[in-house]
Amino acid sequence: MLPLELVHDLIQTMQTPRMREKNYPSDVSRERFEQIRPILEQARKRTKPVTVDMYEVWCAVLYLLRTGCPWRALPSDFPKWRTVHSYFAKWSEVDDGGISLLERALKKSGWRGPRETGAQGLQHVLDRGRAEREEQ
Prior knowledge:
With 136 residues, this protein is mostly helical. The protein has one domain. The chain has 6 helices and no strands. Helix 3 (54-67) packs across helix 4. It is globular, with a radius of gyration of 20 Å.
């Protein structure tokens, strides 16, 4: 049997948010996240305690949206990909008005979507020109 102090320390360690060693360009500040936390927590079931740092899950979702990487390629310093996917699925469910919690949170956070690379921007221009020529 474990000593009571050790059990207490283990519980504290599990509840303390894990700090990532690496920051990503898609990350937002914790202060900005606190502004959108109430929106995201609307999807949370109140029956069991949260065991993951919601900030880290949010940053992982932003990373995925920005990079377009596969779920399983999510960097290992984020929560497990299945956990992030589970929250993403909950947050993506649309309400009666046709808007998801994810969309509301992204709008409130000021997120503007993935940045275009030069090649993507050029391809968009080329496609637009091609479409205009086909209409004539």
